[in-house]
Design brief:
- It is a single chain.
- The protein is built from seven helices and three strands.
- The chain has 150 residues and is an alpha/beta fold.
- Helix 2 (36-46) crosses helix 6 (115-126).
């Protein structure tokens, strides 16, 4: 979404926020360097591996861009800084862009998977998806954590 219309929307937020009764606004960017929704649709719906040349995004400094527009920009790439950054964003009296660097290989899976989804993702992995090993590692870790919290 940030690549499609979000960049332009930030210009509007920066320009018009001073006219708002309450100019506080936080835009969260989950920056994983990937067109992730499309990547996962390809895996789960078509069984196709990630096509890196069309899915990988160039590095872009979203928080710095927001600062160029006059907004507060926060970039978080360390899980230990998440809470402090949210507190800083919530305490600010104007618009904030909170850029959270995330892992593109963390599966955005629903709590219950349909058979077709698992079958298609398995096909994608078997066709040589470059992130298959990392995705499986995340999925196993999440399942293990889910079992221990029950």
């Amino acid at each position: 979404a940030m690549q499609m219309i979000g960049m332009n929307a930030l210009i509007d937020i920066a320009h018009y926020s001073e006219r708002w009764e309450d100019p506080r606004c936080i835009v969260l960017v989950l920056n994983n360097g990937d067109l992730n929704e499309v990547t996962w649709e390809q895996r789960a719906m078509s069984g196709d591996p990630r096509f890196e040349v069309s899915q990988t995004l160039p590095a872009f400094p979203y928080a710095r861009y927001a600062e160029l527009l006059g907004m507060k920009g926060l970039r978080v790439d360390d899980p230990d800084r998440v809470r402090d950054a949210w507190e800083e964003a919530l305490a600010h009296d104007g618009p904030v862009l909170y850029e959270a660097v995330t892992d593109p290989n963390m599966p955005p899976l629903p709590p219950q998977l349909r058979f077709e989804t698992v079958r298609n993702m398995t096909r994608a992995f078997m066709k040589g998806d470059p992130a298959a090993r990392e995705i499986m590692r995340h999925a196993i870790r999440a399942a293990r954590q889910d079992l221990t919290t029950r």
